[in-house]
Amino acid sequence: MSDIALRILTRQKVVLNARVTSVIVPGTEGDFEVLGNHTPLVTVLRPGRIVATCNGERKNIEVAGGFVMVTPDRVDILAERADLTPR
Amino acid sequence: MEELRDLRRRIRSIRGTQQITRAMSLVASTRLRRIERMVEPARTYAEDLRRVVLDIAARTPPWAHPLLKPRDVATPAYLVITSDRGLAGGYNAEIQRRATELLRTPDVGRRRAAGAASVAAPTPVAVAVAVAGRKGRDFFRRRGPAPFREYVHLPDSPDEDLAAKISEDLLAQYFEGRIDSLSLVFARFVSRGAYRPEVLQLLPIERPPERPGWGGGESAAADAEGRSQSQSQSQGRGQERRRGEDQGGREDVQRRKNQGGSATSDGDGDGGKDSDGDETGGNGAHPEDLDLPFGYEPSPESVLDRLFPHYLVSVVYAALVEAKASELAARTIAMDSATDNAGELIERLTLTYNRARQAEITQEISEIATGAESLR
Fold it and tell me: Class assignment of domain B18-335?
């Protein structure tokens, strides 16, 4: 399966910039999972947790709202605040 | 004797000044190092949002959302970002000059604000100015138009709270109809040696006339290669700026002042580079492009509702960061050259001083010699 370039940004820093196989995003209309070749989509985030999977490893990122832009091979998340949750 | 004491005093005083300018340059350059790192993320963030906003604008009918509605711009407003403190070379003067030019020819703002067709009715235009920074406030209070909003005592390092406050305030003014358009005038940070005054229109949202607003073709490709330096903002302007950079190089960019406003005709000038409008969904030039129409969930209007305030804060924040970096760069340069000048002055005065001292000694000796001679 094709992987996607995931970028999570805040105004201050790049929180995550990695290639992932899947990412689960908390949208206002409900959580949704993005895999490769998703239809282009822009939607609003609600505060919650992003779960990104790369190489079978899961990363959790807490966000406090923002926006997600999905294209077939990239996901850009412009978050209000975001932090990688340490495990 | 008199002269000698005078010279000594002057040298001492210049040396004192030099110590101060040297310290200021060091402080500015240290702070610049910190702010410099904030520029790139803030810029990227704001530009990504801008792309989405312009995309929505391009594919949504103007009546669908109040922010998209073209207005007959009777009162264009400019937020002019200057600094609180001086001693930054020509920094504030340059921004103010750029702003003053715009105020004199506000029809530029009007035409652009109205979007495609240039608006005929030349209603008398009352220009409104909002300023950030004490220097700009003092300037516009003195020479008018008196600012309708003033944001002073800016924090040392720009923060989101301030950006939020400013943008909420101005957005409210817009909705209340006290202003009919809004543009930022600020210094874009180019490098430690250069910045350039820039004008960026925010309200109403620009609607490129013949071409949808997704100018991301090229810049998206650049993104993929890890964010190239050249940033495209709105399509037309971005392209134009890039062209300018190619010609002029970066060194003397400060001097170029026709960027932004008057020189900008939106939407043209990029036809050659990425030829496909995104209504076709085609992406011939860059197959790897993301030049596809987005779907908006739940709907373009509702996304815009949430997106726009967020976008405005981001743009204002980015502009504050760029302005701060430019200010510090300007101050570093100004204080460096002041330190150098002081050095030269000290050298010259020391030379004069030594010569005068020599002359005095010679004179004294010759007096003594004459005295001794006469005793014989």
Answer: alpha beta
